[in-house]
Amino acid sequence: MTRLWNEPADFADEMVAGFVAANERYVRRVTGGVVRSTVSPAGQVAVVVGGGSGHYPAFGGLVGQGLAHGAAMGNLFASPSAQQVYAVAKAADNGGGVFFCYGNYAGDVLNFDAAQERLRGEGIACETVTVTDDVVSASAEEKHRRRGIAGDLAVFRIAAAAAEAGYDLAEVARVARLANERTRSFGVAFTGCTLPGAEAPLFTVPEGRMAVGLGIHGEPGIDETGIPTADGLAELLVGRLLDEVPGGVTAAGARVVPILNGLGSLKYEEMFVVYRRIAQLLTDAGLEIIDPHVGEYCTSFDMAGTSLTLFWPDGADQNSELSDLWDTPVDTPAYRRGSVATAARADTSARTSLSARASSAPADATLEDVPPADEASRAIATTVLAAVQTIAETVDTHADELGRIDAIAGDGDHGIGMQRGSHAALAAARVAVDAGAGAGTTLAWAADAWSDKAGGTSGALWGVILNAIAAKLGDQGRPEATTVAAGVAAASRGVIDFGKAEVGDKTMVDALVPFSSTLAHAVDGGADLATAWRTAADAATRAATATSDLLPRMGRARTHGEHALGTPDPGAHSLALIATAVGELLTTEKEKADA
What we know:
Blueprint: H1 11-22, E1 27-30, E2 33-36, E3 46-53, E4 70-76, H2 82-92, E5 98-103, H3 106-121, E6 126-131, H4 152-164, H5 169-181, E7 183-189, E8 209-212, E9 223-226, H6 230-242, E10 255-262, H7 268-284, E11 288-289, E12 293-295, E13 305-311, H8 321-326, E14 330-331, E15 336-337, H9 349-356, H10 375-409, H11 414-434, H12 439-454, H13 456-473, H14 481-499, H15 509-524, H16 529-546, H17 570-594
Parallel strand pairs: 3-4, 3-5, 5-6, 10-11, 10-12
Antiparallel strand pairs: 1-2, 2-4, 7-8, 7-13, 8-9, 10-13, 14-15
Helix pairs in contact: 2-3, 2-9, 3-13, 4-5, 6-7, 10-11, 10-12, 10-17, 11-12, 12-13, 13-14, 14-15, 15-16, 15-17, 16-17
């Protein structure tokens, strides 16, 4: 369990602050994460990694000479927001383009891709390779859908070594793709992990049992067995990975880098006992072991478990490119290899101010900071503020329930993420109203704050939803019911385009699409907004409930398969709860106006 924290909501920020204070030789803090505190050569490709916090030393602990130039660090188990990724990339850029590398999770893909498009729009070249090393998360035929776990280290290291060697952006991406193709991982756990302030772990494993094939965000395993001996576990791990030797590799006589990774609570001594047998098995299989790793490289907070990664640097053609890159010296807070000549400390003044300008709405905004709005729109802005407050209160009421559902059909952090996002949105909406903003600007500021502070998939998608509605509301006049319905329709299209999910995939889309279509139909039929909204909320609630019968086809829940049957999708459920609560608010507002 987790024992030490102040306010759980502040844990990630305070953790990053402490990490930077302890490692100023290597890193400095910027908006959204950390970058090297040393000078990198002008024109060198900047390797930016990242993901949710709770996986130390991934990702901030791998920033330093010979490895990453920057790390975008989200909240616990939540991807960094697009704003955070953008700010870190801007601070890390050396003029040679930005190479993004991270584990293949829906929220990370959404937010990193959004940041990448923004950077490209500014003329900064970017490339991305997602890590897909976890063999149990999809079949070999669909390995592009696999998630990234401890194999991140191998791919990050090769990409960074290529950048260090002066490769251009396209070549860095090429060798990173090759390294990813040559990396396979498989993990087990004996306990779940507990987030700060949580009363229970995200999942549990019965006493004397072992979860097989788990993820690193609290996702339970795909199978469960009795706990084997140390040798038995080594045989399970090695056997599964040797069943899938990467294409282009001839196993007999091949060189392999084994990485036995501790997930948080497993003792080094136990891992050494397991590795003893792993080394025997790999040698007996005719493999040459090079640079073996035993330690913590990608954890899952306090989870007791381990994973084995095999990185195969040489193909059948015996091309030594990856092996040569692997020998590049590295010096970071948590990972060191070889001897690195210490670089000069960077001058941070200009870049710090640039990073600060990437933040959301200013806390001290005034009327001069917001677009012009008429009195009618400012009046509606107070209703928008009330709606955002209703959303935050609704999320607070149901946060534990959302987390419980997500622990079954996701990774357990949906309630926490929704709280972070909705409360950030509420704070931003209050600032906007106090500054005299109109309805559209008020909701747009709330949208940006939500996506920035929540991160993850839900943060990105709620940012899309609220921004789409805000664009239709505008800052002039009182919007008609048809305008609001058009905004919701735009939100529905935006979520589908951004997240790539469709109805039936067991996602938020399953509730959002019927909510939007029902609202539009009711408004077109002459219903007032409050009545139409309540009707649409009922449709969303029915649709969200019906997701219990669906198998997940998108997001982290996809790997759960039949384990997710019988449980509604948490994103669809939270949307339905919010729609219902906002409908009640609109009805109350209408009754006051009619009185």
